[in-house]
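Z., the sequence and structure:
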Amino acid sequence: MLKQAIATKEAPNAIGPYSQAVACDGWLYLSGQIPLDPGSGELVVGDVALETRQVMNNLAAVLKAAGVGFENVVTTTIYLSELADFPLVNQIYETYLSPPYPARATVQVAALPKGARLEIAAVARLPNQTG
């Protein structure tokens, strides 16, 4: 097993002892992204659509750093502090993906880091992998 940390300045720095993503045995495990601006490290606030775009852009940057894109994503987990935000989050999320869509779970949580309203984590398959 060979683990490799993936990091990019195009996505926010980790706010704890974790990597933006880890590549291991043909898979890419992306840490959850909240709507942090990569330049300032500050939470993007406004409406949930703006925040969702920031989260998806952060994920896109980490995927790009690993040499892949959303087409390689096989599963995501969306964490929402308010399940009422789901329809708008889903609408924005869909614009970043194309069929066949990844498998997905969406859960409501009591709180997220830095008071964020959403967080999205993902797993992607790296190219040229078998099995």
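The mean pLDDT is 96. The longest strand covers residues 73-80.

Let me know what you think.
H.
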